[in-house]
Specification:
The complex is a heterodimer. By secondary structure, chain A is α+β, with helices and mostly antiparallel strands. Chain A is built from 17 helices and 8 strands. In chain B, helix 1 crosses helix 2, helix 4 crosses helix 7 and helix 6 (142-152) crosses helix 8. Classes of the chains: A alpha+beta, B mainly alpha.
Amino acid sequence: MKSHEQCAALLDAFIDGALSERDAAEVREHLAECPECRSYVADALSMRELFPGVEETVVPDGFAESVMSSLPAQKIALRTQWKKIALPLAACVAVALLIRGVSVAPTGGAAPAAASADAGGGIAESMTADAEDAATLYGDLEESAPEADENQTAVVTSVAPEPPAAADTGAGGYAAPPEGASYKSASGAGGAETKSARAHADDADTMPPQAAEESAPAPEPSAQNIPAADAAMPELPAEDAAASRKMPVAEESEDTEDMRYSVQSAAQGAGNGAARSDALDGGADLSETTLESGDAPPDTGGGGEYSTDAVLLGAVPSPEEDAVPEEEAVPKEASVESPEEPSAEPPEAREGETSDAVTESFALSATVWTLSAESAPVMERYPPEAVTDGGKWYVLTPPQFEDLCERFPDIEITAGPEIVPADSLPDGAPPLAVSDAVYIFAPNP
Amino acid sequence: MRVDYTAMPEKELIGKAARGGRDAFGELVRRYEKKALALSCRLCGNPDDGADAAQDAFLSAWRNLPSFRGDANFSTWLYRLVSNASTDILRRRQRRDARAGASLDDEGARFDAPDPAPAPQEVAERRELRQELQDALQTLSPEHRQVLILREIHQLSYEEIGEALSLDIGTVKSRLHRAREAMRKILLGRGTFSPPERLKGQEKQERRAAT
């Protein structure tokens, strides 16, 4: 026979029917003798009686419909998100190309055209292209790349940053950023003068793609031979760096038929920068970019806190890329891939992938790094001006990114997983992790 | 061909909804809206907040369905989301009330439990008792309230409650006991329940001794 305390400890289980038959029998015996325990059980059962059942719950009219209408318009997978960002950005790229193409055309494409702050208004400016223009232009682009499909995706281009030569920036590049440089310091808006070689659009229009490709100038061997990924950080001769450098962005193969467009958002510091971005058009043409590093180190100009240049290089997706299964999709080296091996990537680039998100595809050949607070030191060590002066990487700063998000509310990449292949980070950079802050680094064409 | 989701097994619905099937998810909402509201309304103490919490929970379910691995029952998983959403709303309300100087005794915080209403007098009495119960319930801590509601209204087992609230069974049992004790104390104090017979007997003896 259990004591009062022992039985009292079993009362809730007795009420809930969670006792063995033997224990329940003992509790019943105890209840017959103990008014206190009996009262507890009786009150608990009375409470149970008073509790309304689930079935008695009144569901407000239209509750389910209300829930359904409050769901996001579309359940967006990351892949889809990138499609969403890619299309409008491609349109904006086209607008920027048009603007710059018009302004640069009279110069013949060789001499750098001075870019005003307005002209180089950054990605924000690019985004101000009205929808009609963007749609029209994007339509034009689609015509130029008939195989491109809205549903197709291109693979994230993951281009390892090029270590800027010491003579190039004086900023120490990745290994030794300028002392005192911080993320918030303004970039050298006028420091990097960027220009893109004009694509041979006219030729492309009149020639079959293959012929156009054949007629296109070959990329410089040194760049062409860059293996990819981390190897895509060639040490350029100092004289090359001091003068204008020609960096082949990509050799367009007949297979991929990528089209490349660039948005130049340099020269935010009013009057400080000279920037020019030429349209690269013509599908199979060689896209070549001439990148001129400014002689002067970046100054803080009038660019404000985040006057970092932002360059996005867009590529209309190819069907082949879309066909790549998610597991197999890999970042493409837009700058170094060879026509013979359009999907080749260095093995080490795969091994270091920290997430399958790196395989996410989108139509911009920009690399997106998701940085965490922990990775903030990256920004400290490699401030935008150091990076941009290296002529290889550009940063979409938080304000710019926010602006992008405002204009394209469907972008939800802040919740995206980390997409940084570990081995594509500069040497010595701390590992990046999933985060709440997103920055976009894009290779300068 | 139109798919009949109403006859579809739950597991299949969950799979489709996890892949973005809105219709499948809509069917899940319809199947569980009552249970979700039953929990959220009691946890929040009023139908408006309860509906908001239930809606938040379903939204959360929609977002997180791809990560739902089916280790737990969907209902248990949903209870957890409802419970979390209700707790969030309660916290917001507490902050709001704290700013406004309101109390839990406000009329706005009252919740008229829906009643099937069989006979007029009985209905009135029962409604009154239920209101007292509901009022007492709102004086419990959210932790005790959650456990009690999941047990008494949703009739979850200790294990299921533990799963829904991420508690071990020992904690579930102790919280349940404390919740019942607290409820009983409140209702005894309000005269809703009678004191135990033993205490009644003691009172009689005390009265006799006094005379």
